[in-house]
Amino acid sequence: MKRIPLLALIGLAITTAYFLAAIFAPLIAPYPMGATPGGSWQPASAQFWLGTDSIGRDLLSRLIWGGRITIAIATVATLLSFTTGAILGFTAAVVGGWVDQALSRFVDLIMSIPSLIFALVVLSVMPVTVVTLILVMGLLDSTRVFRLARAVAADIVVMDYVEAARLRGEGRIWIIFREVLPNSLSPLVAEMGMRFIFQVLLLSTLSFLGLGVQPPLTDWGGIVKENKDGIVYGVPAALYPAIAIATLAISVNLVADWVLNRTTSLKGGRNG
Length: 272
Known about the structure:
Elements: H1 6-23, H2 25-28, H3 59-95, H4 97-111, H5 115-124, H6 130-156, H7 160-167, H8 172-180, H9 185-208, H10 220-227, H11 239-271
Helix pairs in contact: 1-3, 1-11, 3-4, 3-6, 3-8, 3-9, 4-6, 5-6, 6-9, 7-8, 9-10, 9-11, 10-11
């Protein structure tokens, strides 16, 4: 722990706190997700630490429950995007030829449409469920991962140790998972942090527009939508989830930057 820089340590502590709060939400949330124990937009007090929302629900409880759903959906969508994008990107670089061209041009086509617009169009004609959100967000974001994975793998497949593996008769799957993947982890780990935050922001935006997490469930973007009118009257209820999103984004990026620097230095030491 002493070797971790201060900023990375702060980011790690905040990120861990958010994830622990999401995991143990049923134990630490003062009230159930839909409970209305107070009046509309009550100020902070000993009973309601952050006050209440537009219909009298405890804001602290809503933030904890909303964080649980936000982090869960963003995490699963990020894993889906990296699994899909990395495998297809590595495959395109290793196989090459028409496979590379077909996958690359298809990804270019998808990326030519803004992700938010694409997601809104898809979700407007499909039932908006948690599974649908994860699939749409994960598959859309996998195009970015594909481009990164393909670019990194394209530099790796021309290395001598990959050529030696081919001469030994190793198959493409072996080369992808034993040669390309281990040497691609450093940029992919850093990108994973950015992609996770992008998923949080995309989910919050969709919920704010009414096509994200649907009631009775909620997420941070939905909490902002529910309480946005209070800003006019000086009620800060909509600001708390916005602050939560911002602090999570900053903390995850601090951790991702440290991991990137750490893995890069380790790789340099081994090569030396």
